[in-house]
Design goal:
The protein is α+β, with helices and mostly antiparallel strands and about 1000 residues long. The protein has three domains: about 210 residues, no CATH class; about 160 residues, no CATH class; about 400 residues, YVTN repeat-like/Quinoprotein amine dehydrogenase (Methylamine Dehydrogenase, Chain H, 7 Propeller). It is built from 19 helices and 33 strands. About 30% of the residues are buried.
């Protein structure tokens, strides 16, 4: 988001720079969408040019052209919509084809001169904003047709293009179905803004398709072209071979065409004539197949009859095989018919038979491979099928006996024969050895030599002994010396210890002669121990251990003073000019630890006397508002987290929302009623009269009284309600929710689900008006004295102000309906991740406040939408979760909650009577606990230092019953099951009493 220009004010007129900035941002968003559409159109044009080289490309060319035409119509509708929203930045598109009939007629007359995929698409029909749902539905059909034509090329499949197109198709159908309920409202600014936001979502899909299509043009088109060229080359090769073979057959026929006397001669001519027919047919069919495959206008494979595909693809090879077989048979018969020599006839017959058998076997293998592919869809090879068949054949009983029994008998016979041959061979070898030995005996020397040779066997080993034993060396580092690692003595007379010095390496050497240094003396060991202890202390002193916890580093701003530079030259008499000094003087006057966990919500009472906070530590605290905030009551909720607090319009009752229920409290901390809803409660809202409240529960909004009795239930079809607010006349409620499904039951594929702001008539129980929004809407707040609603969103979406305008149904009717219209979008200067709901502030709700998760606070002027003040995170200190304004005080005061459980009170100097030195000391005081003994000269007021009083008739437990060692800790009053005392027995000493009047447990899921 661009940087907001410095605003300038003049009297009470709205500042034009805010609207100028919104115009600029909206125009930039549309221009970005337009560039995305043009990039896709360019890629489609490039794809059409590249696809002309492919066979059967007329389908993809036609679908891409129609898709480009649909893109032009979609872009025209979005441009007209943006021109209505941002007239100073975007102009309406001129359509010469509509205003000039002669030009349209000229284009129609020239249309036959070029194919439909050549010229650029032009918007020829008159489009209206009411055509948005229909155009989006047809856009989805066009992208689906384009994808189907793209998948008709079996040579290449791109999963990226398929995923991108299918995702866009799902979201387009969802948008088209959702927009049908806004019929006749497409010229309303609220619906127009929603359509403008949809252009960003659609642009992301278009970018994905553009990228995938660019990759397909670079990789897929050449791959398809190569596969088609390869198939055509095979047919050309077949045509060449068939032509050559037909010439051979025709030449050979010259030797036998006049031999017609005997039946054998007639058979020769028959086979050769048949061979010539098949060879010519193979050549012609091959050329026909090549021409068909390269034709751009040919039909895709799944749209051609099966016999045509078989004839074009299979007939050339089959005809050529038959021609060769017939020619071979005729050649054999010609050898006998021409009365050749017997050897010639025999050899010709044998070799021809071998050739035919081989040709038949290979043809059968090709046919089997084709059958295997069609049967198993490429998951198995023919060899796998043959192996499985072989296994099944072997598994049968008869076949198993025939296969394995003869094989086993042959194996036994082979082993028996081998064993007999081995025995015979050993006998012959031993006999020959003895004979040679007896012939070589010549005396005693020969006998001794023979015995020596017999004595040495392969299993005998020769041992060599050394007069000196081996001396292994053991080394250890000098740092290991000392008492840290005890040395085990080697009890051997050959152990000798050699010490190389105090810090050097030592060695233990094995020797025959013992030395006097076999054991270290006791004095040396003591010295080593002392050195080791000194080294350990030196090492530990190099890394000191801090005695206190490090403080959390706060978020710093680029500006050291914590404030933005505000505009100069503000007129003092202007309405906005009077607010600027007060906002600049805002500062933190009090800061205290309200909770031990995240502060989920806080709210001032209508009379301004109390501040209620809720936290995830299962407590809600009521503070007394004054110059020093003091804790009034702590409301324990052992059932679960406290997600929201809500003061009644009179200020004497307080509602606390749990995960699956609501508690009703008095301002003195007495629990009057625990209402168990037995279902998740998203939010609660008081009725203006204070006699009851509304509970938001999924798709239902339940109206309850203070006793928990259900007065009415309002159901919203296909919606999940998040928050609700009731108008002062109690006739209507304004809700915000998320659409769960479209009118046709469709869900978004990739985009965000549609959200709605709804005006619901509680008397007629009908929806009077609904407005679609794209951002994650969560909260809504109504102004006290004006019919405006402040809508808050999650994440980076800024808050918006919507006007509730009464409109008569008919001119003569007195009944009116409420229509929502957007007044302002409160833009920050930079992108901000907002935290919690936004609120009205100031006198007559003239301000709008919203906190960021990083810790900064934004304050806008409600009427002009101008950012008046920006408090940076360095000044706030900590990550914020919620903010609340005190409407009862004449001067400015608001409170903020943070993640660490702290609550800070912000006031202007006029709203506090604290002296300057004391206020500055409070502002500078850290929230970290400080020991009072170390700082006797300073006294910091604590928020929990308050007298405890209650109107409840129950008694109080003494502090000694909880912790005898801390007599200053106040007691805990518990009229329930006692879980509160157990849960809060470990709270800090400054915590006051904990009051709970209910032990009924129910779910604790947090919103």
């Amino acid at each position: 988001m661009g940087t907001l220009q410095q605003p300038s004010f003049e009297d009470d007129r709205d500042v034009p720079t805010v609207d100028e900035h919104l115009q600029k941002v909206g125009a930039e968003a549309f221009n970005k969408f337009q560039r995305r559409v043009m990039n896709l159109d360019k890629e489609l044009r490039n794809f059409a040019n590249a696809a002309r080289q492919l066979g059967s490309s007329v389908g993809i060319l036609s679908s891409s052209y129609h898709l480009r035409g649909r893109l032009a119509q979609i872009l025209y509708l979005f441009r007209e919509n943006a021109a209505d929203l941002f007239p100073r930045k975007i102009s309406h598109q001129t359509r010469e084809s509509l205003t000039n009939p002669q030009l349209a007629q000229y284009r129609k007359s020239k249309r036959h001169r070029a194919p439909p995929h050549v010229h650029n698409p032009i918007v020829m029909e008159k489009l209206d904003p009411e055509d948005f749902p229909e155009q989006l539905q047809m856009f989805a059909q066009d992208v689906t047709t384009f994808l189907d034509c793209l998948n008709e090329f079996p040579e290449f499949t791109d999963e990226a293009v398929n995923a991108a197109v299918l995702s866009l198709e799902g979201d387009l159908k969802y948008w088209a179905s959702s927009l049908k309920q806004y019929e006749k409202e497409f010229r309303f600014p609220a619906v127009q803004r929603y359509l403008h936001d949809l252009s960003g979502e659609m642009g992301e899909h278009i970018d994905n398709i553009t990228t995938s299509l660019s990759v397909f043009i670079e990789i897929g088109v050449p791959t398809i072209r190569f596969a088609q060229k390869h198939a055509s080359q095979n047919l050309l090769n077949l045509s060449t071979v068939a032509t050559f073979f037909s010439a051979v057959t025709a030449t050979t026929m010259q030797f036998s065409f006049n031999m017609t006397t005997t039946p054998l001669q007639n058979a020769v001519n028959s086979f050769w004539f048949t061979s010539l027919v098949f060879s010519i047919g193979a050549a012609v069919n091959s050329l026909l197949g090549v021409t068909w495959k390269q034709a751009m206008y040919r039909s895709p494979g799944h749209r051609v009859p099966w016999w045509v595909l078989i004839w074009i693809k299979r007939s050339p090879l089959a005809f050529l095989v038959l021609s060769v077989a017939c020619f071979s048979i005729g050649l054999v018969l010609f050898a006998y018919a021409s009365q050749q020599h017997q050897i010639t006839c025999t050899l010709t017959t044998v070799f021809s038979a071998c050739s035919i058998i081989g040709l038949t076997a290979v043809s059968a293998w090709f046919a089997s491979e084709r059958w295997t592919f069609s049967r198993h869809n490429g998951t198995k090879w023919l060899a796998d099928v043959l192996s499985e068949t072989k296994v099944r054949v072997k598994s049968t009983r008869g076949a198993q006996w025939l296969i394995y029994e003869p094989r086993e008998a042959f194996r036994i016979a082979s082993r028996w024969v081998a064993e007999r041959f081995r025995q015979v061979g050993e006998g012959v070898s031993e006999l020959s050895a003895r004979t040679l030995l007896r012939l070589n005996l010549n005396g005693d020397s020969d006998d001794e030599k023979y015995d020596a040779e017999r004595a040495v066997t392969p299993g005998t080993t020769v041992e060599c002994a050394s007069p000196e034993p081996m001396s292994p060396t053991f080394r250890r580092a000098g740092s290991d010396a000392g008492p840290l690692l005890p040395i085990a003595e080697i009890r051997s007379p050959t152990a000798t210890s050699v010490d190389g010095g105090d810090g050097g390496d030592g060695a233990s050497i094995m020797s025959d002669s013992p030395g006097p240094s076999t054991a270290a003396p006791g004095r040396g060991r003591f010295a080593n121990a002392v050195r080791a202890v000194i080294k350990m202390r030196v090492a530990s002193s190099a890394f000191p251990v801090e005695g206190r916890n490090p403080r959390r580093q706060r978020t710093m701003s680029s500006d050291g003073n914590g404030r933005d530079a505000e505009p100069v030259g503000v007129l003092k008499n202007s309405r906005v000019g009077t607010l600027m000094p007060k906002l600049r003087s805002l500062q933190t006057t009090q800061s205290f630890e309200a909770h031990s966990a995240l502060v989920r919500h806080l709210q001032f009472s209508p009379n301004g006397k109390f501040l209620a906070t809720s936290s995830w530590d299962r407590t809600s605290v009521i503070f007394k508002v004054g110059e020093q905030f003091t804790s009034h009551r702590i409301l324990a909720h052992p059932q679960g987290f406290v997600g929201q607090v809500a003061w009644s319009p009179s200020g004497n009752l307080l509602l606390t929302k749990l995960g699956r229920g609501v508690k009703v409290w008095t301002e003195d901390g007495v629990c009057k009623k625990t209402i168990d809803r037995r279902r998740n409660v998203q939010s609660i809202a008081w009725l203006p009269g204070g006699e009851g409240f509304l509970s938001v529960e999924g798709s239902d909004v339940t109206k309850l009284d203070l006793t928990g009795t259900v007065l009415a239930t309002y159901h919203f079809e296909r919606l999940i309600i998040h928050d609700v607010a009731v108008t002062p006349d109690q006739a209507r409620m304004v809700c915000v929710g998320t659409l769960t499904a479209s009118m046709d039951g469709l869900h978004p594929s990739k985009c965000r689900a549609e959200k709605q702001i709804i005006v619901y008539n509680m008397e007629t129980e009908k929806i009077e008006n609904r407005v679609p929004v794209l951002h994650e809407v969560r909260d809504i707040t109504l102004a006290r004295n004006d019919h405006v609603a402040l809508v808050s969103y999650e994440n980076k979406a800024p808050p918006q102000l919507w006007k509730l305008e009464p409109i008569k149904k008919h001119q003569q009717s007195a009944n009116t309906e409420i229509r929502l219209s957007l007044r302002h979008t409160y833009m920050p200067k930079t992108q901000v991740d907002f935290a919690g709901p936004s609120y009205f502030g100031g006198k007559n709700d003239q301000l709008v406040l919203c906190a960021g998760k990083a810790g900064d606070i934004h304050i806008w002027d409600r009427e002009s939408g101008t950012l008046l003040h920006h408090i940076r995170s360095q000044t706030v200190g900590g990550d914020l979760t919620c903010i609340a304004w005190n409407h009862a005080w004449d001067t400015f005061m608001f409170a903020t909650g943070s993640h660490d459980g702290a609550v800070r009170i912000w006031t202007s100097p006029a709203s506090s009577n604290i002296p300057g030195s004391e206020a500055s000391s409070i502002f500078a005081t850290s929230r970290a606990p400080t020991n009072p003994a170390n700082t006797p000269g300073t006294t910091t007021p604590n928020a929990y230092d308050a007298d405890y009083r209650t109107d409840s008739p129950t008694g109080q437990l003494t502090s000694e019953s909880l912790d005898p060692a801390t007599p200053g800790t106040p007691g805990i009053l518990n009229t329930g099951s006692g879980s509160a005392a157990n849960a809060f027995g470990a709270l800090p000493q400054a915590r006051p009493s904990v009051v709970t009047f209910s032990s009924q447990a129910f779910g604790s899921s947090e919103r």
